[in-house]
Specification:
The chain has 737 residues and is of the alpha+beta class. The chain folds into five domains: 173 residues, no CATH class; 118 residues, no CATH class; 121 residues, no CATH class; 47 residues; 83 residues, no CATH class. The protein contains 29 helices and 19 strands. Strand 14 and strand 15 form a beta hairpin.
Length: 737
């Protein structure tokens, strides 16, 4: 019996992973080929993201579409792992995939497998077709030029054959007719052509239509007038309902003689249209009976017809009546029924006509295409094209490998980890560009499809976000972005403010704020926020007070002027009035008591403020020298402490995840943005190092002597405090005793 160790498969050697700390969590490093080979063994709980969208991120969409194997518009872990496995299998060295070079060396392709040999041969053929036989490597740009790749051959293995690939002009013309009737598809080079399904659909429809026409030739009752039957049937159908209506009315008149007058329409009906322009009121006229209704009266074909129906009746007589019944001046009910019966078979046959677009071609052309073996010739072209499918698929594999060689490592570092974002070595795939606004630049800008939907979830990220609508000059294109403001303050950020957004391609966009989500930006902003709010509130109150005082003053001045005018007018009237006239009313007098009360109230208010200030200063002066800084610090803590604490807590909660989840990502970690890192994401304007600065400003405002004002206030407050404490009284008694 053999040793059990010889029958058991060797356990895989555990891979030694390396992590780096960023964003408050551990992220895996993918710097070696061995890391990629062991990627399927990495616990998925350690992946930063579990899925991301194919569209709307700053990455080559063609590469993302190749990774998205189920074509659902999202890349998931299994799809990414499958892309890594396939790419590693096609390369000799796994470290080659980590380099991320734009050019794939031909020597790096694994030629020990059938698929690898096919890819290598196809890559060399592509370079040969492009005139680059001596090239040592191939790039995604080379594989994208499909027109030049397939220029040397009529077929490219995709099953789509354009007319240019036909062997002769007759076959090419047939393919053009097929495409005009049954549609077309694009081949690998972008040319329009036919496929097996399109060809089969065309010829099946053509056979059905030709068989339908053949049925008419075999049954004489279907075409009573031979080739003229179709035109006659159309003329008959144009008047059929109206003639039926006429004979039914005549039958009603025979049934009851009283009905004739009503069936011919009343004089009121005639009067209703008499005032109209009858040349344009054809519908009103046409609604009247085809001819005058009488019991047993045949239908006249010439005289006495409704004017709106004369043209159609003439065509009916020419195409139907005369060829079948001869020259008649009128048509009785029996002859009418005979005519309809003669076209019954044609009507039934017409109702079975196949509804197919091949009817656009003449019947003779359809018979010609069906009778000269054209279908077999086109099918042969498609078979010859499909025979090259393996070679064409190998070309597609070359494109896939060149793109994976260039892009796969980068997408891993923006999916498995967020290395590009947290190391700041380059922009992450979700960063759309840079926004310049209010003297700062914001690097964390994310494209947004629906602002309302995105903001509902992004609010949980605890970041100050401005949503911008961006429009390019002289272009109809418009995008929306969400930009995180992580440095500076928010004093001048408001809806309607304009900035400029530069996307990853370097294009500039005019950007306007359309929505703001407010959260703390920095500790510094939170510290000064209470004072700014108080200052803003005081300013608003002073502005309201000044506005109210100005209105009161304007109203008082208007009243004084009105009273003065009335007094002058009264004086003039008294000068001319007879002696018995009463004296004018006395002029408005200045209410001294009222204004004295106002000034007294103002004085009391100022006194109260002075007393309060004096009490504060007295209390502060009464402190020991070492207590004074503590008192100042205590006041600052009371005023700014709550705001700073709240800001500190929210800044520690800033999370990138909700911003990306709102855009269709599935972020698997709490991707924090701490204070130092957040500050790096937004740059505030500053002068360059070593720059010279002149402080001479010819238009600078004159400085306000605030120190003098403060000194005066302090002196006055000190005097008041000393007086209230009795020191001044004792000094005066001592000095002037």
């Amino acid at each position: 019996m053999s040793d059990a160790t010889t029958t058991q498969a060797a356990a895989p050697v555990p891979h030694k992973w390396r992590f780096f700390r960023a964003g408050g969590f551990d992220q895996v490093r993918l710097d070696r080929g061995s890391d990629l080979e062991a990627l399927d063994r990495l616990d998925r709980k350690l992946w930063v993201a579990l899925s991301c969208p194919v569209h709307g991120i700053e990455f080559d969409e063609r590469t993302l579409e190749l990774i998205d194997s189920d074509h659902d518009g999202r890349i998931r872990v299994d799809e990414l792992l499958e892309a890594v496995r396939w790419a590693l299998a096609q390369l000799k060295d796994a470290d080659q995939l980590v380099k991320g070079d734009a050019v794939l060396p031909l020597s790096a392709i694994n030629d020990t497998t059938d698929e690898g040999r096919g890819i290598l041969a196809s890559a060399k053929q592509i370079l040969f077709n492009l005139g680059k036989s001596d090239a040592a490597g191939i790039s995604p740009a080379d594989t994208a030029d499909t027109q030049r790749i397939f220029a040397a051959t009529r077929f490219n293995g995709d099953g789509v054959v354009p007319p240019e690939s036909a062997d002769d002009d007759a076959v090419a013309a047939a393919m053009v007719d097929i495409m005009a009737c049954s549609g077309s598809e694009k081949d690998r080079t972008g040319c329009l052509g036919v496929t097996k399904d399109i060809v089969d659909r065309f010829f099946n429809d053509a056979e059905a239509l030709v068989a339908w026409h053949a049925k008419a030739g075999a049954d004489g009752a279907i075409l009573p007038l031979a080739a003229a039957t179709d035109d006659a049937a159309k003329s008959l159908a144009a008047v059929r309902a109206k003639i039926d209506d006429y004979f039914i009315r005549c039958s009603m008149a025979a049934y009851d003689t009283r009905a004739a007058a009503a069936l011919n329409r009343s004089t009121d009906d005639l009067a209703a249209i008499a005032g109209k322009d009858l040349s344009t009121a054809t519908d009103d006229v046409g609604a009247f009976p085809l001819a005058r209704v009488e019991a047993g009266r045949p239908l006249p074909l010439h005289d006495g017809l409704n004017p709106a129906w004369i043209g159609r009746m003439a065509a009916f007589e020419r195409d139907v009546v005369t060829p079948i019944l001869g020259n008649l001046t009128d048509l009785d009910a029996g002859a009418w029924e005979k005519l309809k019966a003669g076209f019954a078979a044609h009507d039934a046959w017409s109702a079975t006509r196949p509804d197919t677009p091949v009817g656009k071609l003449p019947l003779s052309r359809l018979r010609d295409l069906l009778g000269n073996g054209m279908r077999a010739k086109i099918d042969d072209l498609i078979v010859r094209d499909k025979a090259l499918e393996p070679e064409a698929n190998a070309i597609a594999s070359v494109e896939r490998l060149t793109r994976y060689h260039r892009d796969l490592h980068k997408i891993l570092n923006n999916f498995v980890s967020f290395r590009d974002f947290y190391t700041r070595r380059g922009k992450a795939t979700f960063q759309a560009g840079t926004l310049y606004l209010d003297g700062r630049s914001a690097d964390l800008c994310i494209r947004v499809a629906d602002v309302a939907k995105h903001s509902a979830l992004a609010n949980l990220g605890r970041m100050y976000l401005v949503y911008m609508e961006c429009v390019r000059r002289n272009a109809a294109e418009k995008i929306q972005i969400a930009a995180a403001i992580t440095a500076g303050d928010s004093d001048q950020l408001m809806i309607g403010r304009n900035g400029v957004f530069y996307d990853r391609k370097g294009h500039d966009w005019d950007a306007t704020i359309i929505k703001i989500i407010e959260h703390p930006i920095s500790i510094r902003q939170a510290f000064w926020l209470p004072y700014k709010r108080v200052g803003r509130m005081v300013g608003e109150q002073l502005e309201k007070f000044a506005t109210a005082r100005a209105k009161t003053a304007d109203s008082g001045m208007t009243t004084i002027l009105d009273n003065a005018a009335k007094t002058a007018a009264a004086g003039a009237a008294s000068a001319t009035a007879p002696p018995s006239a009463p004296p004018p009313p006395p002029p408005t007098t200045f209410d001294v008591a009222k204004f004295a009360g106002i000034f007294a109230a103002i004085g009391l208010a100022i006194g109260a403020l002075g007393t309060a200030l004096a009490s504060i200063i007295t209390g502060f002066i009464g402190l020991a020298w070492w207590q004074m800084p503590l008192a100042i610090l205590g006041v600052l803590l009371i005023l700014s402490g709550p705001s700073v604490v709240i800001a500190f807590m929210k800044l520690r909660q800033r999370n990138l995840g909700p911003l990306l989840d709102a855009n269709g990502w599935a972020v698997n970690a709490r991707a924090k943005i701490n204070i130092p890192f957040g500050t790096a994401l937004t740059a505030v304007a500053r002068l360059p190092d070593g720059a010279e600065r002149s402080l001479s400003d010819p238009y600078a405002e004159k400085p306000t002597p605030w120190l003098l004002y403060i000194g005066v206030v302090v002196v006055v407050a000190a005097i008041v405090a000393l007086w209230r404490l009795g020191f001044l009284g004792r000094w005066f008694t001592t000095l002037f005793g």
